[in-house]
UniProtKB/TrEMBL annotation:
Residues 1-68 form the HTH gntR-type domain. Keywords: Aminotransferase, DNA-binding, Pyridoxal phosphate, Transcription, Transcription regulation, Transferase. This is PLP-dependent aminotransferase family protein. PANTHER family: HTH-TYPE TRANSCRIPTIONAL REGULATORY PROTEIN GABR.
Length: 456
């Protein structure tokens, strides 16, 4: 029997509902004996199913079904290189470990699920989070930690709350996270942008903004910035905190991927002012499971009452079951083991990406990058537009993101694409970058030809 026969056999069983998400597949040895074929044939079939995101493997446990949707399987049978999707690498996610934690949480908190929980978050989880944050150089107490239904909830609430400085406007890095800009728009706040690039941030310009524009808070992603991937130096972080203290500005530090930072000497801005001037926000979505929808915010006591009222109005409390499961996952040491694997995985991908950029990206295009291997951008040579390249690459089954929506109007750029390599297999990264480079070259040639014909 050929490995393709085994592959299509399982696709058929999944399509017909005979195998459902979570079902375990036969072991390689058992299936090879059953089908009278070699173990290598079975391994190759399982490997192909895993590449197409149909199944996933759990070390020392076996293979399990991820998806039963025919459309999903059909879509993934194409040779797609997906730089667009920004979720964590699904092959590296702790599905089975977290399932065990969910089962334990059901047993441990079964009585508590019939009542409303603490708005601030499960106390045992907040105690564990305080210990966890110490590894990120964030030293605080459980009483200042608030569990949120994803970090975006915390950001949205903080935009709306009155702050002790009595100010109203918001300063944010450019480009930046789309969700935060949408929160600003929905609440009718005035936004002031400050550019972030390979040279860091213009601190003199930032001081002018703080000084003259009634700035309530400054939003910053200091590690592995979205979308550029850049990180601020400790010196820059310290100076930003000093400016905030001088001009009575609060800081929201969105450390959504701080867990991936392998630099033990890198400090969050929170470390330079733990009194409450720096509001620390963290998510578990990008490093663990997006569907978990849990994050945290470390708040000063002066914001406690207003924040709890806003949180209660939003969803009363974050889901107790997932809070309990996360507590068990952190307490057991599973999270630390998982993060070690993630750091190694994304670091390898980052190196491959940067080498591919150096080898293939043409002069005139400017690329960014980071050690996290999660986000980076390519600024296309003028006069190319990101929209043109996005559409062109779709023909090649390469998907990238148009970063235009990540800019305020006064900072608008229509020639920047964002790449995330979290979903791209290591072996396909260079091929994908090469296709991007070829796409840039093709569009430039077409433009030259059009101009030449028009002159005639």
């Amino acid at each position: 029997m050929l490995y393709e026969d085994i592959y299509h056999m399982f696709i058929k069983r999944i399509d017909e509902g005979l195998l459902k998400p979570g079902n375990k597949l036969p072991s390689i040895r058992a299936l090879s004996q059953q089908l009278a074929c070699s173990k290598n044939t079975v391994m190759k079939a399982y490997d192909e199913l895993e590449k197409k995101h149909v199944i996933y493997s759990v070390p020392q446990s076996g293979y399990y079904v991820i998806e039963s949707s025919k459309k999903h399987i059909a879509d993934n049978l194409q040779d797609v290189i997906d730089f667009h999707t920004a979720g964590p690498d699904r092959h590296a996610m702790p599905y089975r470990d977290f399932q065990h934690c969910i089962n334990q949480a059901i047993e441990r908190y079964k009585e508590d699920m019939f009542i409303y929980s603490d708005i601030q978050g499960l106390h045992s989880l907040r105690v564990q989070l305080a210990r966890h944050l110490q590894d990120l150089q964030v030293f605080t107490v459980p009483e200042r930690i608030y569990v949120v239904t994803g970090s975006q909830q915390a950001l949205h609430l903080l935009v709306s709350l009155p702050f002790p400085n009595g100010k109203h406007n918001i300063c944010l890095e450019q480009p930046t996270h789309v969700g935060f800009m949408e929160s600003i728009r929905q609440h009718g706040r005035e936004a002031y942008g400050i550019g972030v690039g390979s040279n860091g941030i213009d601190l003199e310009r930032l001081e002018e903004i703080f000084k003259h524009n009634d700035i309530k808070l400054f939003y910053s992603v200091t590690r592995f910035h979205n979308p550029t991937g850049y990180s601020h130096t400790n010196e820059v972080r310290r100076r930003i905190v000093e400016l905030a203290q001088q001009y009575d500005v609060y800081i929201i530090e969105d450390d959504y991927m701080g867990d991936l930072d392998s630099d033990a000497k890198a400090d969050p801005m929170f470390a330079y002012d733990p009194s409450g001037r720096v509001i620390y926000v963290k998510s578990f979505s990008k490093v663990m499971l997006p569907g978990l929808r849990l994050g945290l915010v470390v708040l000063p006591d002066v914001l406690r009452d207003a924040y709890l009222k806003g949180k209660s109005a939003a969803d009363v409390h974050s889901p107790l079951l997932t809070q309990g499961a996360l507590f068990i996952y952190l307490q057991s040491g599973m999270f630390n083991a998982h993060i070690d694997r993630m750091r190694q995985l994304y670091s390898r991908k980052a190196i491959i990406l940067q080498q591919a950029y150096q080898a293939w990206i043409p002069s005139g295009a400017v690329y960014s990058g980071s050690q996290s291997g999660f986000y980076s951008t390519i600024e296309l040579p003028v006069p190319l537009k990101a929209e043109q390249l996005v559409d062109h690459l779709k023909q090649e089954n390469v998907f990238v993101d148009n970063a235009e929506r990540m800019y305020l109007p006064e900072f608008a750029k229509d020639n920047v694409i964002r790449l995330s390599i979290s979903q791209v297999e290591e072996a396909l990264i260079e091929e994908g970058v090469q296709k991007i480079a070829n796409g840039i070259a093709d569009l430039l040639i077409r433009r030259t030809q059009v101009r030449f014909v028009s002159r005639e």
